[in-house]
Specification:
Elements: H1 17-30, H2 66-79, H3 87-95, E1 106-108, E2 125-134, E3 137-145, E4 158-163, H4 168-174, E5 183-186, H5 207-217, H6 222-239, E6 244-250, H7 252-263, E7 267-276, H8 279-283, H9 299-302, H10 305-311, E8 316-322
Helix pairs in contact: 6-7, 7-10
Amino acid sequence: KKTCQLQMDTSTHSYSPINQIAMVKFFNSSLKLKSPALKKINTLPLKTDLLVSTSGDLHKEGSLPIYQWVANTAKYLSKNRKKNENLAKRICEVLKIKIPLGTPPYRRTHGEGRWDRQTIKSKSNIFRFVIESEPNIYSPLRHITKSKGPFRLDPEAEIELYLPDLSSQKEIEEISIKNKKDFWILDVRGMGEGLFVEDDTKNYYGMEYLLAGHALMFSETLIGKRVLDVLTTINLFKDEGVKKIHLHGHGQGGIIALIVAILDSHIATVSCEKAPESIEKLTSTPVCYWLDVNFPLNILEYFDLPEIRKEKNKKLVKCSYALPLGLSYK
């Protein structure tokens, strides 16, 4: 009670007189200052009073723009990275990944959620399962197939697994699956059905941002947890008799696919479409609209995407790059 106090006003992120008075009163009390608490705010400071330079434009007055400082830092970190150490070990360390060993529980669901069970044009069936990668964390896994589909997974010995950019449903609706073979598609946590609100796919200060920030506060990474969801699903496929997995990633799913290919030997081939060329390039551009989850703390000290592509060159069957502006921009 002496060191923590909650103060709420009628507006968010407010520097209102009510909040100012409460703040001064709290610090005076906590620090045992004899100064009287602030009782009234006569005026808010003028904009000109807050300037730290003559014009108020530090860039024009010769200050280094923040994006140039970030670019210089990114270049330095990449240059001084310990590239001689094991890449998989470095990835697990910075993304806080613990390789799952067991087989996760799963179940077939009768309702198909937001999906139609059958796609009209292709006459393919969509069967939905949920995988519990961690306690109470469920990832929807769908099997798109011409067969009637059992209530169990019963996968083939060799399968195609897709990781979407943001939502399985959106990508299935936008691409033709008429001539595609049977395949599986996974929504990792916070994507697809896990989206809190629909506009999160284009909201750079939405739940994606907040989830990534909370993961940081708990010494975790959201992208590391999403990689864990895929690795856990792969363990399930292994237990079901799958010998080879052809992994396909699109956009953010492409980043996850590259990382998973390094960490699991069951990945026979990997495709990475419309993913960033490198994290360094994303951080070195003045304007970047890739979501915060793709920039975990200290990542450039440990690895970057070109290293993975180089190490998995023989298994990388398809690769294309997206601009720093992200997939939502042309």
